[in-house]
């Protein structure tokens, strides 16, 4: 049940991230053309910044989940299996600590930005800064699930021996 809901949420997240990236490109393109014709669209820049903040953190979670981040497999693959596993757990622990710190510091930032407004949109800048704790939480969950999957994989390899 949980994996089905999680898979559904991951598809939604990936769709939203992709849509935001496309919308950013469209808004920036239209804004540049309008500006060159001396009719700037002021809201397009603010909306692009808002969408960019969300696209960055949602896409980072998608990349983490699909192993899209750059790794040093060339070096790590030269180590014996038990060292590779240790390095995986060490790296995962460091990632979890970083994401926890990111979430802890970004929540007060989000709260403090509620008075700051996007000039052309008239909405709180907290809508943009909220992408940081939401993205950090999503990546934290993804990292935990990857650790669980790695542990299950190691257990099944041990049983096969």
Which structural traits does this protein have?
single chain, 161 residues, mainly alpha
Element layout with pairings:
Elements (H helix, E strand, L loop, with lengths): L1 H35 L5 H24 L7 H4 L4 H32 L13 H4 L1 H30 L1
Helix pairs in contact: 1-2, 2-6, 4-6
What does this structure look like?
By secondary structure, the chain is an all-alpha fold. The chain has one domain (2-160). 80% of the residues lie in helices and 0% in strands. Helix 1 runs antiparallel to helix 2, helix 2 (42-65) packs parallel to helix 6 (131-160) and helix 4 (81-112) packs antiparallel against helix 6. Residues 24-149 form the Tripartite ATP-independent periplasmic transporters DctQ component domain. One of its GO terms (biological process) is C4-dicarboxylate transport. One of its GO terms (cellular component) is plasma membrane. Pfam families: DctQ.
The number of domains? 1
SSE order, as H and E? HHHHHH
Structural class estimated from helices and strands: mainly alpha
Helix content: over 70%
Give the quaternary arrangement of the chains. Answer: single chain
Determine the N-to-C terminus distance.
Answer: 31 Å
List the uncertain runs. Answer: none
Arithmetic mean of pLDDT: 90
Find the count of extended strands (DSSP E, 2+ residues).
0
Shape: elongated
Sheet with the most strands, sense and barrel status:
none
With helices defined by DSSP (H or I, 4 residues minimum), what is the helix count? 6
């Amino acid at each position: 049940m949980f994996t089905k809901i999680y898979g559904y949420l991951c598809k939604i997240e990936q769709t939203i991230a992709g849509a935001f990236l496309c919308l950013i490109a469209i808004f920036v393109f239209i804004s540049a053309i309008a500006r060159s014709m001396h009719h700037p669209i002021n809201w397009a820049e603010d909306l692009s910044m808002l969408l960019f903040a969300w696209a960055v953190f949602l896409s980072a979670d998608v990349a983490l989940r699909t192993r899209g981040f750059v790794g040093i497999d060339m070096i790590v693959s030269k180590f014996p299996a038990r060292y590779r596993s240790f390095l995986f757990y060490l790296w995962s622990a460091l990632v979890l600590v970083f994401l926890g710190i990111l979430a802890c510091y970004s929540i007060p930032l989000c709260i403090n930005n509620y008075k700051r407004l996007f000039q052309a949109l008239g909405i709180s800048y907290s809508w943009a800064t909220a992408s940081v704790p939401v993205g950090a939480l999503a990546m934290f969950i993804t990292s935990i699930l990857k650790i669980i999957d790695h542990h299950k994989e190691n257990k099944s390899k041990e049983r096969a021996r």
